[in-house]
């Protein structure tokens, strides 16, 4: 699966990319219809010190694209929560595809 990483007001991190790729590879193994992924890492200037690290992932699949985003205190937690949201959406899509 092709994975593109985009950084908005964040410096690139190979460790973060590897962490995200590992999580996405697990999704690819489970949902073979995945085509590609666009991953965005952003920082948000907020007054709250708890959050501000945003991970957005957009998956290309047959039909409409699937998107999820999380805003957490660090990128690893944001990626994990985003992946969990995507799993839910992918499971629904897989069930819908099986009924057709």
From TrEMBL:
InterPro entries reported in the protein's UniProt record: RHF-like, RHF/RaiA
Pfam families, sorted: Ribosomal_S30AE (PF02482)
Signal peptide: none
Domain of life from the UniProt record: Bacteria
NCBIfam families: yfiA (TIGR00741)
Name by which UniProt lists this protein: Putative sigma-54 modulation protein
Organism taxonomic ancestry: Bacteria, Pseudomonadati, Bacteroidota, Flavobacteriia, Flavobacteriales
């Amino acid at each position: 699966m092709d994975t593109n990483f985009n950084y908005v007001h964040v410096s690139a991190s190979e460790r973060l990319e590897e962490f995200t790729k590992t999580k996405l590879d697990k999704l690819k193994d489970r949902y073979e219809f995945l085509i590609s992924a666009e991953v965005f890492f952003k920082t948000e200037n907020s007054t709250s010190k708890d959050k501000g690290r945003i991970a957005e992932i957009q998956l290309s699949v047959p039909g409409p694209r699937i998107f999820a985003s999380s805003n957490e205190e660090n990128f690893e937690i944001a990626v994990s929560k985003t992946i969990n949201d995507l799993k839910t959406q992918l499971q629904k899509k897989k069930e819908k595809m099986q009924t057709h």
